[in-house]
Amino acid sequence: MLEPLFGVLALFPTADDLLKAIPEVKKRGFTKLEAYTPYPVHGIDEALDLPKSKLGVLVFLMASLGAISMFLFEWWTSTVSYPLLTAGKAYNGWPAWVPPMLEGTILVGTFTAALGMLFVFNRLPFFGNPMLRSKAIDRITREKFALVIRPGAGGLDTGGAIAALKAAGGEDIEVVQAPRYSKAGLAWWSKAIGAVGAACVVAGYGTAWVIRTFPTTRPMVEMEDQPRLDAQAADTFFASGRGMQLPPDGTVPRTFMPILAAGPGDGGKALMNPLPVTDSVLERGRTQFDIHCAVCHDRLGTGKAWLDSTYKAQPTDLQSSTVRDASDGYLYWVISRGFASMPAYAADISPDDRWAIIRYVRALQRSQDAPMRDVK
Length: 376
Ligand code: HEC
Fold this sequence. Notes:
By secondary structure, this protein is of the alpha+beta class. The protein is built from 16 helices and four strands.
């Protein structure tokens, strides 16, 4: 039996030749045209009168849906399902939902663009396009530009089509047949993947079911069954009705530094320098002092800033008797909290390094103030 006709094909050497041929062929009354090119060709959609792709509309709709569903999801979790007060903000603090909404938009948008293009508009998976069986397909994928005249409602005048293509400059004209494909069953490998997937699901749920149904196999039942309060659960024992209690008044966190909470007069004095006076501590102190303090206080601590004249403040002379007499704790407070126009260094210098700097400042002070007996 003769196979039905797919169309008459001609090859063109360049994209320009193809674009020029399209109106020629149309002039001869053939309007059902298709082009096959090795790469996207500008202007081909217009030349073939292809309608504008609806992919953009689909992506817009789905991306909006992504944003809206993310908004609703955030709204539902933060106001209905699990309202949790965060830093005193309102439950429906929508600005915080914007990043997830953005992600929802992009996720659904990109998936729609890729999958919609492949499966909705190009109807994949379909490996039976008759063009794939044409002699020309190898060259089309590499270097040639093909124009195919498809049969219209009233069939196709093959002779006329060949003549029209020839007149338009087409070469290697070929009549392509369209074999009828029976809908093939699933390939063996897709069945295998499906079977393994199904087996995993069954095994997973099965195990969970066995563990729940036969308590002997439950690990650490004692812990699970003990009388206890779940986090965030309501409770009748305490007057507050909360399961989780607030810490008692005056509780001190383990990382609490009283000095940073107190003013310059108090906290500082209570703190002792925890570091021993060793070479490595002094070395560490020198490095950190030279990095952080020397620009303003000078490497000897004399307070002669190296900064240019735009820096108006007058850094304190660390050799002065005020600083000499100040306690280590006080200096620690100054470094951590800053002092007048001197910035705070708590965020830049670790506590140990701050203490090391103070050890080094003490050494600097001694170096400029040696008693007479040291030289005699
Ligand atoms: C940006 C410049 C600058 C840097 C860097 C700087 N300081 Fe200062 N520091 C100052 C100025 C300015 C003052 C004087 C503030 C005032 O009295 O107005 C000062 C004052 C001090 C004082 C005296 C506080 C008092 O009670 O009078 C000490 C001690 C001190 N700095 C130590 C340090 C140490 C240690 C470092 C390094 C971690 C450091 N500074 C880094 C600018 C700086």
